[in-house]
């Protein structure tokens, strides 16, 4: 006869309630593990979807995700010409926050060359961007309809397609526009600002005595052209030809002096070690704290339920029960509670994780490791109860 | 061979100034199947006598022999397995029924059989039969809280008798019951002890309960002061 199960059956209300409470706690522990994995997945999402071998960014920066990086768009031609490079494509990244339906609406805008790569990885509805201007593909998480228009910079953009789970390293959903559109949105000034700039340049040039009015006019047009130029990108990504030596390609680009060629491994390190390290440690710490709390709670539950059973334990000893019967009762109850709480926590996460604001990635390794940890905690926690039980004297069955 | 032999059994609680001699120099023998009642006022040492024989309380001095096996001689015999002796040779009944609250009537009897290595199905059959013979056949699945005092005490008797022990020790088994139920329980106990050929030692402070016993010991201040045979 299994005493642990009989006791649970008799006190099932109490047992279920404590298991649910513990289950909620373990659910939080699981979700933190999931958020932790999600942080990684989010941080690396754009990196992975782009499928580039080298990220060329501004010299001395950790761009384009961790730091600002600005390089001229036309460097793509030079990069493409490097031996070993198969393709090179410019990309522009910016975080946009506007008002939509009266609420802040935040997303990560990716501008890509329609003839290059780095565009939406997968179209789940609608179509990809076909026209060079004013079309947009948005991530599903932005909850926009095909055909919806939003105003960015100086123009309206129409949603033509929906892509899957693309997010920025900060977890914001991503939207795609053509590179030219992205550059417009990022750099193009409105007409007032342009007029102001032109007048200021004109006024400055007019003050230069040695310039003839014709020269000044010519210079004004050229300078204004440069200041109004939007042909800047954040990075140029390159794919290597099969068998190409990445070190050699990097060395070549590095020698140009103005650029830093970052390999995917380096970029991964920048994203995971640098950018999300603190969040990762924070989550790890929380998980440990919650597990310690669970351990304390389990110990307390087991200890008090042992105290409740002192008379039962004394009676069992008095009628000659072996110690293993008594230890088994306490230990099995503890393990069963842990297992059921784990199951409740797991079910809870499984039902809700899709609806978390941030991505939750449930890895079976994490879940299995947690199960082992919970079982170990239950085992260790029941020691206090078992110690108490072993000290009970059979004579204690007699009183009262 | 006697079921119980006690020779100069002495139990002293505590040490020095505060030492209390609860039982002093008790010497007697009980044969298998014999019914012995122990009568005495509260605090006279009845429970101590019972628990010293029952391998629960270590005797300070003297000798205790159960079913031919010496268990204590100036303290426990070294290396003795008290639990095993308790479950194989002794049956206990208390004032409070001491049933396990989360086990049903039949499970409370089964547990005594199972810890004595009887397989589950046999234990269940045996426990049900035993309870049925005590007119508790309709109560097998009830928890102790659902049983009346008399019923609970009968389940406790079934548990004590389950392993057919050589010795049954009962400490005021009727104290929590009204006179009629008390008498019924006492009658049942005597009947079963005779059927099982078990020696039985029943402590009580109610002399109305002692009729039909073979011998009656009177205990006063830790000493057996009188013995009456019927
Ligand atoms: N565990 C104990 N520690 C100290 N003294 C005890 C203990 N148990 C009983 N006594 C004392 O021993 C004496 C006999 O007690 P007990 O055997 O319980 O008597 P009875 O069962 O006849 O009422 C009493 O004076 C009691 O106070
Ligand atoms: Mg007593």
From TrEMBL, chain A:
<keyword id="KW-1003">Cell membrane</keyword>
<keyword id="KW-1133">Transmembrane helix</keyword>
<feature type="transmembrane region" description="Helical">
    <location>
        <begin position="15"/>
        <end position="36"/>
    </location>
</feature>
<protein>
    <submittedName>
        <fullName>FtsX-like permease family protein</fullName>
    </submittedName>
</protein>
<dbReference type="InterPro" id="IPR003838">
    <property type="entry name" value="ABC3_permease_C"/>
</dbReference>
<keyword id="KW-0812">Transmembrane</keyword>
<feature type="transmembrane region" description="Helical">
    <location>
        <begin position="325"/>
        <end position="349"/>
    </location>
</feature>
<feature type="transmembrane region" description="Helical">
    <location>
        <begin position="369"/>
        <end position="386"/>
    </location>
</feature>
<feature type="domain" description="ABC3 transporter permease C-terminal">
    <location>
        <begin position="286"/>
        <end position="394"/>
    </location>
</feature>
<keyword id="KW-0813">Transport</keyword>
<dbReference type="Pfam" id="PF02687">
    <property type="entry name" value="FtsX"/>
</dbReference>
<dbReference type="Pfam" id="PF12704">
    <property type="entry name" value="MacB_PCD"/>
</dbReference>
<dbReference type="GO" id="GO:0005886">
    <property type="term" value="C:plasma membrane"/>
</dbReference>
<dbReference type="InterPro" id="IPR025857">
    <property type="entry name" value="MacB_PCD"/>
</dbReference>
<feature type="transmembrane region" description="Helical">
    <location>
        <begin position="285"/>
        <end position="304"/>
    </location>
</feature>
<keyword id="KW-0472">Membrane</keyword>
<feature type="domain" description="MacB-like periplasmic core">
    <location>
        <begin position="16"/>
        <end position="255"/>
    </location>
</feature>
<dbReference type="InterPro" id="IPR051125">
    <property type="entry name" value="ABC-4/HrtB_transporter"/>
</dbReference>
UniProtKB/TrEMBL annotation, chain B:
<feature type="domain" description="ABC transporter">
    <location>
        <begin position="4"/>
        <end position="230"/>
    </location>
</feature>
<dbReference type="InterPro" id="IPR003439">
    <property type="entry name" value="ABC_transporter-like_ATP-bd"/>
</dbReference>
<dbReference type="InterPro" id="IPR017871">
    <property type="entry name" value="ABC_transporter-like_CS"/>
</dbReference>
<dbReference type="GO" id="GO:0022857">
    <property type="term" value="F:transmembrane transporter activity"/>
</dbReference>
<keyword id="KW-0547">Nucleotide-binding</keyword>
<dbReference type="GO" id="GO:0005524">
    <property type="term" value="F:ATP binding"/>
</dbReference>
<dbReference type="GO" id="GO:0016887">
    <property type="term" value="F:ATP hydrolysis activity"/>
</dbReference>
<dbReference type="InterPro" id="IPR003593">
    <property type="entry name" value="AAA+_ATPase"/>
</dbReference>
<dbReference type="InterPro" id="IPR027417">
    <property type="entry name" value="P-loop_NTPase"/>
</dbReference>
<dbReference type="GO" id="GO:0005886">
    <property type="term" value="C:plasma membrane"/>
</dbReference>
<dbReference type="GO" id="GO:0098796">
    <property type="term" value="C:membrane protein complex"/>
</dbReference>
<keyword id="KW-0813">Transport</keyword>
<comment type="similarity">
    <text>Belongs to the ABC transporter superfamily. Macrolide exporter (TC 3.A.1.122) family.</text>
</comment>
<dbReference type="InterPro" id="IPR017911">
    <property type="entry name" value="MacB-like_ATP-bd"/>
</dbReference>
<keyword id="KW-0067">ATP-binding</keyword>
<dbReference type="InterPro" id="IPR015854">
    <property type="entry name" value="ABC_transpr_LolD-like"/>
</dbReference>
<protein>
    <submittedName>
        <fullName>ABC transporter ATP-binding protein</fullName>
    </submittedName>
</protein>
<dbReference type="Pfam" id="PF00005">
    <property type="entry name" value="ABC_tran"/>
</dbReference>
């Amino acid at each position: 006869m299994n005493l642990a199960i009989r006791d649970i059956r008799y006190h099932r209300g109490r047992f279920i309630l404590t298991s649910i409470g513990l289950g909620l706690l373990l659910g939080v522990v699981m979700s933190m593990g999931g958020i932790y994995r999600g942080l990684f997945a989010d941080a690396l999402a754009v990196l992975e979807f782009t499928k580039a071998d080298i990220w060329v960014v501004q010299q001395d920066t950790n761009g384009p995700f961790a730091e600002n990086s600005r390089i001229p768009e036309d460097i793509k031609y030079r990069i493409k010409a490097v031996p070993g490079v198969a393709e090179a494509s410019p990309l522009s990244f910016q975080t946009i926050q506007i008002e939509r339906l009266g609420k802040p609406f935040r997303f990560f805008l990716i501008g890509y060359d329609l003839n290059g790569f780095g565009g939406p990885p997968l179209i789940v509805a609608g179509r990809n961007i076909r026209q060079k201007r004013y079309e947009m593909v948005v991530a599903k998480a932005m909850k926009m309809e095909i055909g919806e228009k939003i105003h960015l910079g100086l123009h309206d953009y129409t949603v033509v397609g929906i892509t899957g789970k693309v997010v920025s390293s900060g977890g914001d959903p991503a939207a795609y526009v053509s590179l030219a559109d992205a550059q417009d949105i990022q750099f193009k000034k409105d007409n007032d600002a342009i007029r102001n700039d032109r007048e200021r340049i004109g006024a400055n040039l007019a003050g230069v005595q040695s310039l003839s009015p014709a020269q000044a006019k010519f210079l004004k047009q050229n300078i204004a052209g440069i200041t109004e130029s939007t042909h800047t990108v954040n990075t140029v990504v390159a794919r290597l030809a099969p068998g190409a030596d990445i070190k050699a390609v990097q060395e070549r680009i590095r020698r140009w002096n103005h650029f830093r060629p970052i390999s995917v491994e380096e970029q991964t390190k920048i994203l995971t070690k640098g950018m999300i390290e603190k969040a990762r440690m924070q989550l790890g710490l929380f998980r440990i704290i919650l597990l310690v709390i669970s351990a304390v709670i389990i110990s307390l539950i087991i200890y008090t339920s042992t105290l409740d059973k002192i008379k039962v334990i004394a009676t069992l000893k008095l009628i000659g029960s072996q110690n293993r019967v008594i230890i088994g009762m306490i230990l099995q109850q503890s393990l069963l509670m842990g297992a059921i709480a784990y199951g409740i926590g797991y079910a809870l996460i499984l039902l809700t994780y899709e609806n978390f604001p941030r991505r939750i990635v449930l890895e079976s390794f994490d879940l299995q490791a947690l199960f082992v940890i919970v079982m170990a905690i239950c085992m260790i926690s029941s020691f206090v109860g078992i110690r108490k039980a072993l000290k009970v004297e059979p004579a204690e069955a007699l009183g009262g | 061979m006697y079921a119980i032999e006690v020779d100069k059994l002495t139990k002293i609680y505590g040490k020095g100034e505060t030492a209390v001699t609860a039982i002093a120099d008790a010497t007697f023998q009980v044969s298998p199947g014999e019914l012995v009642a122990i009568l005495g006022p509260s605090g006279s040492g009845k429970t101590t006598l019972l628990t010293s024989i029952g391998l629960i309380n270590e005797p300070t001095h003297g000798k205790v022999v159960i079913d031919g096996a010496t268990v204590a001689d100036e303290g426990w015999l070294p290396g003795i397995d008290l639990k095993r002796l308790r479950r194989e040779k002794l049956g206990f009944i208390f004032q409070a029924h001491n049933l396990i609250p989360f086990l049903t009537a039949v499970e409370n009897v089964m547990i005594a059989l199972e810890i004595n290595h009887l397989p589950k199905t046999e234990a269940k059959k045996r426990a049900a039969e035993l309870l049925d013979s005590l007119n508790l056949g309709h109560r097998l699945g009830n928890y102790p809280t659902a049983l009346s005092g008399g019923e609970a005490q009968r389940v406790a008797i079934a548990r004590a008798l389950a392993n057919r022990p050589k010795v049954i020790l009962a400490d005021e088994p009727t104290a929590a019951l009204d006179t009629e139920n008390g008498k019924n329980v006492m009658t049942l106990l005597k009947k079963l002890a005779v059927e099982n050929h078990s020696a039985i030692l029943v402590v009580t402070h109610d002399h109305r309960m002692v009729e039909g016993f073979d011998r009656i010991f009177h205990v006063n201040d830790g000493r057996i002061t009188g013995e009456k045979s019927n």
